[in-house]
UniProtKB/TrEMBL annotation:
Record protein name field: D-alanine--D-alanine ligase (EC)
Taxonomic source organism: uncultured Thiotrichaceae bacterium
PROSITE patterns attached to this UniProt entry: ATP_GRASP
Listed InterPro entries: ATP-grasp, ATP_grasp_subdomain_1, Dala_Dala_lig_C
Keywords from the named record: ATP-binding, Ligase, Nucleotide-binding
MF annotations from Gene Ontology: ATP binding; D-alanine-D-alanine ligase activity; metal ion binding
Length: 339
């Protein structure tokens, strides 16, 4: 079994995938410990990808969604490897768009009967006065497709029209796109790591996220909080709450058509009702800090290595369709058993 990990220098990407080169090396080392043949590729051009295709690996692990190309269209890796009939981890391009566009995911799930916060899209000057707004204050403003809390800070929470206009203008200047404006949910915040394993069962790890209190008395999960790693992830001890959060996350995961793995973010209002917020389909994998492996450790006491083993199990199963699994190098019997 030959496995290759694909990443790209991603410091400037809005959606950074597994994370830094250190994160990808952690994934590499975890796979080596499973006795598979594995290599890490830092790709910047289509030529780099063509070299991988020539080697015909059994599985490629996509640590980013795309490779940016100057003065040309981005190369979406799921499309590229699908076209070359190479087995890859994660979801197809048509599903990854739900990660890249929060509104698209919300609209899709609303049509499936899944709750999400009321929202609208706004450009500078689009609404002239408070009574024109489709959703009443308080509101929460964030970029349409940025990840890692980019563009989110204390000023994202607005209660007056003047502050709303200011934040819409600043986000447009920074991201050159309209703003996602949501009703502010004043309850708790959760994240749920979901893995569809080799036996098609779901491993679901739901945890609560508690951001630090800011100078303005707000608990906002913004870019600075994530950079400082100052939020806490804690186990959900109330079984009713955990079941409600997990049930909504699984419903969203399935309704969006996610393959292999994804992380679903959920918030509640002050009545405890759960609402889908967004989905991350190439979640961070930084050992010791990224939400996905941390949620698995908190909820199920999985080691980082166990998380990676489960993460790639679906892709390995697809590679194993033509050869009996027990005859393949690196076959691990534990992947064929229920969690």
């Amino acid at each position: 079994m030959n496995i290759e990990i694909i990443t790209t220098p991603n410091d400037t990407l809005k959606e950074s995938g597994f994370g830094s080169l250190n994160a990808c090396n952690s994934v590499l080392n975890a796979i080596k410990a499973l006795h598979y043949s594995v290599r890490l590729n830092v790709c910047t051009t289509e030529e780099n990808l063509a070299e991988i295709v020539k080697r015909r690996p059994d599985l490629v692990i996509l640590a980013v969604k795309y490779i940016p190309v100057k003065e040309a269209d981005d190369i979406w890796l799921s499309d590229y490897f699908s076209q070359h009939k190479i087995n890859y981890t994660g979801s197809k391009r048509e599903v990854l768009r739900f990660d890249s566009n929060k509104v698209l995911a919300k609209t899709h799930l609303i049509n499936k009967g899944i709750k999400t916060a009321n929202y609208f899209i706004a450009a500078p000057g689009q609404f002239k006065k408070e009574s024109d707004l489709p959703v009443v204050f308080p509101l929460f403003l964030k970029p349409l497709d940025a990840a890692n809390g980019n563009g989110i800070d204390d000023l994202s929470f607005v209660t007056h029209f003047k502050d709303y206009e200011s934040k819409v203008a600043s986000l447009y200047a920074a991201f050159d796109q309209p703003t996602l404006v949501e009703e502010y949910l004043d309850g708790r915040e959760f994240t749920v790591a979901i893995i569809r394993t080799a036996n098609k069962r779901l491993s679901v790890s739901a945890v609560e996220v508690i951001p630090p209190t800011s100078a303005h008395g707000l608990r906002i999960l913004g870019a600075q909080t994530k950079k400082d790693d100052s939020e806490k992830l804690i186990k959900i001890v109330d079984h009713e709450v955990k079941n409600k959060v997990a049930t909504l996350a699984i419903a969203a995961f399935n309704a969006l058509g996610v393959r292999d793995y994804g992380r679903v973010d959920i918030k509640t209002n002050n009545h405890g009702e759960c609402f889908f917020m967004e989905v991350n389909l190439v979640p961070g994998m930084t050992k010791g800090s990224s939400y996905f492996p941390e949620a698995c450790e908190i909820a199920h006491k999985f080691t980082y290595e166990k998380v990676i083993e489960l993460l790639i199990s679906g892709g390995i199963a697809r590679a194993a369709t033509t050869t009996p699994p027990h005859t393949q190098r690196g076959y691990n019997k534990s992947l064929a058993t229920a969690i």
